[in-house]
Design goal:
Elements lengths: L1 E5 L2 E5 L6 E3 L14 E3 L17 H10 L5 E2 L3 E4 L21 E4 L5 E3 L5 E2 L1 H8 L18 H13 L9 H10 L7 H6 L3 E3 L4 E7 L6 E12 L2 E9 L20 E5 L2 H11 L3 E3 L20 E5 L4 H14 L4 E2 L3 H6 L3 H5 L7 H7 L7 E5 L6 H13 L5 E5 L4 H13 L10 H9 L3 E4 L7 H15 L3 E5 L1 H5 L5 H22 L2 E5 L21 H5 L2 E6 L10 E8 L6 E8 L4 E3 L9 E2 L44
Parallel strand pairs: 1-20, 14-15, 14-16, 16-17, 18-22, 18-23, 19-20, 19-21, 21-22
Antiparallel strand pairs: 1-2, 3-4, 5-6, 6-7, 7-8, 8-9, 10-11, 11-12, 12-13, 23-24, 24-25, 25-26, 25-27
Helix pairs in contact: 11-12, 14-16
Length: 644
């Protein structure tokens, strides 16, 4: 998904200009309804001329009191009478009063009416209360309905899918249960959760049902492939992941339930519900994101158990989700994770797939850190940091880009070329395939360009962390964001303040911030050092990592450019390794025949902790099992590890 943000609120969806595409990726073409070709929707909301200021919970309460609207304070939302429900609709099917059916998010002000399913922004709610807007009282703000084509496709797939116990061949049913780890899950459990099996695609089908189970809104298909001795799983959602907001198991929740187990996978929900009898719900995107649109459905629970996995990445996601849900009512999978912290690879963070030598030095990409990146003008800083961030994004790291120097369209084109590892202008027949895959990445863009207020930028970043669970923010670059009209002494003081603000944001929000800063003017025959970063020493002091893209020829290697890690707060390893720029794919790769591919250099104490690498391929462990939207552990239900 490509979302443009301004002033902390999503304004438009940036969609590629494409023609038509065939079928739906990941599904047999025979399942696509009607004609196999369809137009891709390109609607976009108009951009606002001025940023929308974020609303606070205090301001929401004051507004409701000023207009005589009674409300109840909840865990993450305020409940109030809904202006979108007529008097005759204020009683539900059981006859109970349903007047407090409007849920208002305390952080963003967005609302959802459980009765009419009307939803919108805080400004929309104000317009409805005050009688402003075109037809606000007539329910124009109803939640976005799925596209007609998506609805037809969902129904077509659902009609062709059948329950596992109705498969004609017992061997086929047993094989499916083994593949998906359902050997101990009973038919009754599968029946209650309405799970089916699609034979042509060999996939389990999990339905997205409307509240009350009255309508089918979407599907998630889970397919399995055997590769060697391992089983690999692939998810496909209809509609696309960005608008697939299904809490799997919601129709089975009773109003009397006060405790629930939130899982990252549907298979875990099935196993846990059967073994414990507790209500269970599966998040639509696992550990990748908890959409705020789902919070109203979780307000009734006094205790929420987060069952997301026992690895460090799941533990970090659980802490992030608990902030939204109110930590006082959340129980986390803690004791099991403490054992994982002793594992160096877990604690080191997510490894790069495209830069193995960077793994040797930095060990991985960790939340809550600040990385400062610099390099000479024209050396390819933006191109390198684009691939650097794209590598992590393809592994499920939700990324927010703030490009203040070049346009988002140009940046997206560079990243798409890097993603496809080749120029798509020369292979237009593959453009739709790569664009579809690129669109599914958890990648978001700010709409800022040029000088911006640091407060506005920080507000946008905080909003993105809350709404999209952003784990990595890239700011390119600091000087363009600051502007150029201030005096030099004021600029240095302003830069120190901004660096401190980014440092505080990274720590407080457990989010990694990569900050691109131009260097000072240096002689052409001198290499850049940490002291070459523009401004005072504040940037290098606050940073956890300092990366320098050197545009000089390494003496022992063939590359013209090389990357220098001059600061590494995690374990102190610093060094350099050559890079080779591939013009056709706009990527940096490691020279394959370099004998001095990685060169350790002395740290601040003058010590060399490790010997130079021999340059053998495969020396750096790779996390080949990591994929978008999935954690590192296998996709199998594991009810043996209780949450506390």
């Amino acid at each position: 998904m490509w979302v443009l943000l301004r002033g902390g609120y999503p304004l438009r969806i940036l969609l590629p200009l494409r023609g038509e595409w065939m079928g739906r990726r990941g599904l047999p073409r025979s399942l696509v309804p009607g004609s196999p070709r369809r137009r891709y929707r390109k609607e976009a909301l108009p951009a606002l001329e001025v940023p929308v200021l974020p609303v606070t919970a205090t301001e929401i309460r004051q507004y409701l009191r000023a207009h005589g609207i009674s409300f109840q304070d909840g865990h993450s939302c305020l409940r109030a009478p809904s202006p979108f429900v007529k008097a005759l609709q204020l009683k539900d099917q059981t006859g109970a009063t349903a007047s407090f059916s409007l849920f208002i998010d305390k952080t963003t002000g967005r609302f959802l009416c459980m009765t009419s399913l009307a939803e919108g922004s805080w400004e929309d709610f104000q317009a409805s209360v005050e009688g402003r807007g075109d037809g606000a009282r007539e329910g124009v703000l109803l939640g976005e309905a799925p596209e007609a084509k998506d609805s037809e496709e969902v129904q077509r797939i659902w009609d062709r899918a059948i329950p596992l116990w109705e498969l004609p061949e017992p061997e086929e049913a047993q094989l499916a249960r083994v593949m998906f780890g359902l050997t101990k899950v009973t038919d009754d459990t599968l029946r209650r959760f309405s799970v089916r099996y699609l034979r042509p695609a060999r996939s389990l089908v999990f339905p997205w049902l409307s509240p009350g189970g009255l309508g089918l809104r979407g599907l998630k298909l889970l397919s399995a492939e055997v590769q060697g001795d391992e089983v690999h799983y692939k998810e496909t959602t209809i509609p696309r992941p960005g608008v697939y907001h299904n809490l799997f198991g919601l129709p089975l929740i009773s109003r009397r339930d006060v405790e629930v187990v939130l899982t990252g996978r549907e298979l875990d929900s099935l196993a846990l519900n059967q073994s414990t009898g507790l209500p269970t719900l599966a998040l639509p995107r696992g550990t990748a994101c908890l959409p705020p649109a789902l919070l109203p459905y979780l307000e009734q629970f006094r205790r929420i158990v987060l069952w997301l996995g026992d690895d460090l990445r799941s533990w970090e996601a659980a802490k992030l989700f608990a902030r939204k849900l109110n930590p006082k009512r959340c129980s986390l999978l803690r004791e099991e994770v403490l054992g994982e912290l002793s594992n160096v690879e877990q604690a080191a963070g997510i490894r790069w797939n495209r830069f193995p030598d960077l793994n040797r030095l930095l060990k991985g990409h960790r939340k809550g850190e600040l990385t400062v990146f610099t390099g000479p003008t024209g050396s390819g800083k933006t191109t390198f940091i684009s691939e650097y961030a794209l590598d992590l994004c393809t592994q499920g790291v939700n990324t927010l880009w703030g490009s203040f120097e070049i346009s988002n369209v140009r940046l997206a084109r560079v990243m798409l070329t890097q993603f496809a590892v080749g120029r798509l202008e020369e292979q237009l027949d593959k453009y739709d395939e790569w664009a579809d895959r690129f669109e599914d990445l958890p990648l978001y863009f700010m709409t800022f360009h040029g000088q911006q207020s640091i407060r506005t930028v920080i507000d946008t970043m905080q909003h993105a962390v809350y709404v999209y669970d952003i784990c990595h923010v890239v700011i390119d670059n600091l000087q363009f964001m600051m502007g150029h009209e201030q005096l030099s002494t004021d600029r240095i003081a302003a830069q120190d303040y901004i660096v401190g603000a980014f440092r505080k944001f990274a720590t407080d929000n457990s989010c990694h911030v990569t900050l691109v800063i131009h260097p000072r003017k240096e002689d052409d025959d001198k290499e850049l050092q940490t002291a070459s970063i523009f401004g005072s020493a504040k940037a290098s002091q606050e940073a956890d990592n300092v990366l320098i893209l050197q545009d000089r020829k390494l003496v022992t290697g063939p590359g013209k450019r090389y990357l220098q890690v001059s600061k590494n707060r995690f374990d102190g390893d610093v060094g350099v390794f050559p890079l080779e720029f591939n013009k056709s794919s706009l990527t940096f790769s490691i020279p394959p025949k370099s004998k001095a591919r990685l060169k350790k250099v002395k740290d601040d104490n003058g010590l060399v902790t490790k010997k130079p690498s021999s340059g053998k391929k495969g020396a750096v462990p790779q996390n080949s099992k990591t994929c978008l939207g999935q954690a590192h552990h296998p996709y199998q239900p594991d009810p043996s590890k209780p949450s506390r």
